[in-house]
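fold-stage: in
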Amino acid sequence: MSVRGDVWSIYRETLPILFVALGGGLFAGLVLEGLLESVDRFPGLLVMVPVFLATRGNVYGALGGRISSGLHQGLLEPRFEWDERLVNAVLASAINGIGISLVIGVITWLTLVTLGWEVAALSELVGIMVIAGVLTSIVLIFGLLALIFTGYTYGYDPDNLVGPIVTTLGDIFGMLFLLFAIDLIEVIG
C-alpha cells in the first residue's frame, strides 16, 4: 500500500471514533459539573480527577496495545475465550488500575496534608478512588476488548482504535463512577 493509501486508511478508521470520543469528552465534562457539588464535602476531590482519568488511559491503553499486538501477531483470536496471554494481560491491567487508584487517594491526601490545605478524610478519598477504580476496570477491560475484537473482525486496525476507545470509555465511565463512588461514600459516611 502506498503512503497515501496508508494515510487514507488510518484517517478513515479513526475519524468516526474521534467524533464519538469528542461526544464522550463533552458528556464527561457534564458529569464533572455534577461532581463539583461534592467538592465542599470532599476537599481534595478535584486534585484527584485529572490523575484518575490519566491513569485510566495509561493502564488500559497499555492493555489495548498488548491486545492489538497479539491480534497482529496471531497470538490472540478476536473473541472472549480462555487464553493465558489474554487472561494475564487482563489481570495485570486490573491490578494496576485498581492499585493505582488506591495510590492516588493516599498520595493526594498526603500531599494536601503536607501543604496544609483542607482535605477530606483519608478513608473517604481512598474509598472514592478504589470504588471508581474497580468499576472502571470492569467496564474498560470488557468494553475495550469487545470494541477491539469487533473492529478487528470487521477489518479495522486495532492500533487505530485503542487510543480513542480508551480515552472515551475512561472519561465517560471514570466520571460516572467517580460520581457514583462519591454518592456511595456519602451514604456510608
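fold-stage: in (second)
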Amino acid sequence: MNAKNMTYSIPWNLFLITLGSLVFAIGLKGIFIPHGMITGGFSGLGLLLLYATDSMTPGLWYLVLNIPVFILGWKLVSKRFLYYSLYGMIMMTLLVELVNFDIPVTDPWLATLAGGILFGGGAGLIFRSLGSAGGNDIISIILNQRLGIRIGTYNFLFNFILFLFSFGTLNTDLILYSMAASYIASQMIEYCMTLFNQRKMIIIISDQNKDIAHEINHKLRRGATFLKGRGAYTGKDKDILLTVANTFQIKRVEEIAFSIDPEAFMITENTFNVLGKGFSQRKIY
C-alpha cells in the first residue's frame, strides 16, 4: 500500500483518531484537571461548566456540547468526515472517562508545558486523519476549508475568548497558565499538521539557469519552472528558475547553482504546504 492509499484507508484514520484521543485524554486527566486548569476548545468549555456547576463529568459535558455542532456539520462537511468525527467524539468521551491517573508534575510551569504538548499533540494527530474529535474541531475544519483560516490560529482565538470568560470563575494564575498551555498546544497542532510536508521554495536568478535546471532535474529528480523576468537595471530579459525542495535538498540545490554560476542569486523561502505530484496529496475532508 502506497502512502496516498494509506492516508485514505479506514484503519489508518481510525488509528490516528484513537491514538490522538488517548494522548489528549492523558493530558486532560493527568495534568489539566489535577492542576485546576482548563484546556481550550469544547473540552475546555466543558471543564469550565464542570467547575461552575459541579455536575456531570468532563466526558458527558463534551458529549452534550457536541450535539449542535454535529447538526451544523451534517450540512457543511462531507459525510465521511462526519462519520470519522462521530467515531472521534465517542473515543474521546470514552477515553476521558476511562483514563484516571495523575501525572506527578508539581511545578505549574512544567505542568503548563507538558499539558500543552499533550493536548496539542493529541489534537494534531487527530487532525492528521480525515476526521476530527468533534466539537471545536468540526468548526475549525469548516473555517479552514471555506475561508482558509489556519486551524491553530482559530483555536487560539477561540480559547482566548474562552479564557476571558473564565476570569471571576477561576483563579487568575490558573487562567494565565491555561492560556500559556493553549498557545503551546496551538503550536503543536500546526507542527503536527505540517509534519513531513515542510518544503522550501527556491528562486534562482542566473544567466545559466538552463544548465542549473538540467542538473536539478537529473541529480535531485526535482521539477523546475522557468519564469520570465527582466533586469531592472540592465533591461535584459532572462529566465528565472523556480523549484521546490525538501529541507535535506536545499544544500544540494545551492551546490548545483553556485558550482555552475558563482554569480547566481538564490532565494530560499519557507512554504506552509506543497500539494501536487511528487509532494503531498490534497486531503479531502
